Amino acid sequence: MPFFPLGGFSPVRSRALSAVAARHDATPIAVALAWLLQRSPDILLIPGSSSAAHLRQNAAGAGLSLSEEDLAELDKFGR
Q1: Residue 10 pLDDT more than 90?
Q2: What is the three-state SS of the chain?
Q3: Is the whole model's pTM more than 0.90, yes or no?
């Protein structure tokens, strides 16, 4: 079942998400998508996209491997 557990756009702009993104040289949205993919093998992401550049940013999330520290940091606000 698709869902958006980050609670809309405010948490996506959180300091935690931005910090993890900076460590991975990625966008916050790519990190959010990577976080969701690593939470469960049963999650199917359906991200929206308004341009080819935005699509590339979203796809970059599939290639990110977040550390246990990253996941713990993101899990704090994603509940």
Answers
A1: no
A2: CCCCCCCCHHHHCCHHHHHHHHHCCCCHHHHHHHHHHHHCCCCCCCCCCCCHHHHHHHHHHHHCCCCHHHHHHHHCCCC
A3: no
**Measuring CA to CA, which residue among 79, 62, 77, 60 is closest to residue 14?**
77
Distance (Å, rounded) from C-alpha 46 to C-alpha 48? 7
State the Cα angle at 65 between 62 and 68, rounded to 5°: 135
Query: Distance of alpha carbon 54 from its chain centroid, rounded?
Result: 14
32-52 pLDDT tens trace? 889 888 888 788 777 777 888
